[in-house]
């Protein structure tokens, strides 16, 4: 089979301006969460174009690409996994789903920035849990990880469950993550709580009131973002 070089295909869409923007946006400076990440300068829509053109790539070739130092190459590999997982789901091909899941979990260390997590965790790991291909306890293991990105995978994976109105897992994991020290986790937990709130306002409001003293301010603001202003202000002051 012809060797597929995602880097060469992505290079056609790269620009110096976008490279600089991405390096700033994804905090690649010394001491920042994305320190050391290298960008080509390709927009996400263009990465998606390349991914959709190369869905037939083998796992062997995909392995080479997901290990790339270049952010967009890793992203492209991950988006290929997501698209192929959606195809497998559509035709109820659980064998392919399991292969994709196993590959994804084996390569978690390369899913090492928030966009890589947020565009894949729910579609692959979360969906696998819904379909009985993985146990929910895997999420509990991930949120205990010392690695920020693995903890984020653990909570973002529940997004697909929320869409199916299965809300308890998100609330359970969110409570365990309230003491997390990373701002990116505060945002992720708040975001998932907001998604739950869209389905069931009462249970999220009860959760926030009950745990108010332990909820990071960023998490609280994200969680209540869609509330009507008077109620949102009362929640911020804990006067509901």
Descriptive account of the structure:
The chain is built from 16 helices and no strands. The chain is mostly helical and 240 residues long. Helix 4 runs antiparallel to helix 5, helix 10 packs parallel to helix 13 and helix 13 crosses helix 14. The longest helix has 20 residues.
Name some characteristics of this structure.
mainly alpha, 16 helices, single chain, 240 residues
Rg from alpha-carbon coordinates: 19 Å
Distance between the termini: 63 Å
Shape: globular
H/E element order: HHHHHHHHHHHHHHHH
Strand-residue proportion:
under 5%
Decide which structural class fits the backbone: mainly alpha
Whole-number mean pLDDT:
96
Number of strands: 0
Taking the sheet with the most strands, its summary is: none
Q: Uncertain spans, ≥5 residues at pLDDT below 50? A: none
Summary?
This protein is mostly helical and 240 residues long. It is built from 16 helices and no strands.
Write the layout of secondary structure elements.
Elements: H1 6-11, H2 16-25, H3 44-53, H4 59-66, H5 71-90, H6 94-106, H7 114-118, H8 121-130, H9 137-143, H10 148-156, H11 159-163, H12 168-176, H13 183-199, H14 201-210, H15 217-223, H16 229-236
Helix pairs in contact: 3-5, 4-5, 5-6, 9-10, 10-13, 13-14, 13-15
